[in-house]
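Q: Sequence in, structure out?
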Amino acid sequence: MTKLYRRSHFARWRAAALLCISLTAAASFPALASAEDKPLVIVRDIDINSLDPARAWCDTCQIYLSNVYETLIGLGTDNKSLVPRLATKWEANADQSQFTFTLDPDAKFSDGSPVEAKDVKWSMERLKNVKGDASFMMDAVRSIEAKDAKTVVVTLTGPNSEFLNILTAPYTGVANSVEASANGAAAGEDAATADKGEAWFLAHSAGSGPYMLAEYKPGDVLRFKANPNYKRSAVAIGDIVIKHTKDAVAQAQMLQSGGADIAMQIDPDTAKTISGGELSVETVPSYNFLYVALSPGAKDGGKLASKEVRQAIGYALDYDGIIEFTVGGQGKKIPVAIPNGFPGTDGLPEPKQDLAKAKELMAKAGAADGFEINATFPNMNAYGVDLSLLIQKVQQDLDKINVKLKLTPVEFSVWRDQVRGDGIPLTTVFFAPDYYGSAQYVQYFGMMEGTPWWKRAGGATDASITNAKTAELLTKVLAAGDAEKPAIYKEIAQTMIDDRIIIPVVSPDLVLAHAKSVTGLRYSACCNLLMNELGLK
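A: Exactly. Output:
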């Protein structure tokens, strides 16, 4: 078994490591000079899988898309309300199965051409037809009509009270259809095979957002430059760089040395080592969470086909210990793969460890002697949590019910390929909201035919994994009024808990660490970071 160090020891190690690397890192990353001749520098683990709006799917992708490709609707500073973006107004029919959007007459793409209804239609159809990770957001769309240059009508397959919320997700941003099509992008029904635009998007952008792509070097930097044709609000900082910095300790050191202005993935232990009158460290609640995922359909995952075994794993986890070990208590338990505070989560039973119940369920499943399974995981930091530490704690907990984990750390891109290929029996990973609303979690994590985790869990080959009740309840809630939704979502949440495919373990508080000269930094539930809100003083 991998040795699991006590958190207090690890905290002291972090502090020592921070001191040890200070001189060499300072030499590698010279301090910023002034706002006039240096870009604003953000440090984070760059987990990009693509810069293509129809294929990107990651936390850094959210940041990129939010700032380069505008959506029809935005999310307000309260992280709940809808505000105009490319659409200045919108209307819905009586049962919310058809929506009409009026576009901003002054909106322009970065090349100066106007944003028109044809671009909205093309972008939505491309997102749906390329079949990337975010394509499920367009599953409910039956047709899109460009009535005139500035009017778009979207007709859905049925009532969907959450469709407007979906349109705040950065993955629904609008691209310049003329420019992208000229460079190989396609939006037709055969786009999954016909589209050839991804390589072009790695070096070019075609959006109407406040920023444009200036440079992308995988594993190194992502650079933005201000879009001169963006007029919706003032853009105070013309040049912004996200520098790949994997470890929280290194991020903190960059911040302290003046080599960075914002550090995005600082954990609570490392935050305590940050000092200096010119730096600000603030901890705020977030909607982000980390989870254990079980895939019965994965290679060597057969023992997990038993719901009793999956439920035993859920009872074996020490949720209080996980929160203390990973984030020093700066986080919250989360009962279901829907963020605390989202519709349907009030009053759900808090997860807790029950080893006696776990052992009873293992015996009932004929697995009292236990088994060994592969636990490949992304070797990275997410929301201030080192995933290697998290899975070591999970390994220690499951050892108590004779479930042995073979830990294999890999790069995120390798993990993504494996989980989509032969699958991974047990893993730990993370999720951030794409908009305020619970349907996205049901459509991503629910055991309904076609959802990403239904596929990864082996739903296509094992009918027992499919939960027909979840699909029925989702259809019901999308047609329901606001007063009815919380109760229906709560019922959906209870079915997801019972399935025990996705087991959330911690919702970390978010550490906002930055130079005091930076203004406007806040947590955004859809977009991670909105750069046009940033300023320097």
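The CA atoms of residues 188 and 337 lie 33 Å apart.
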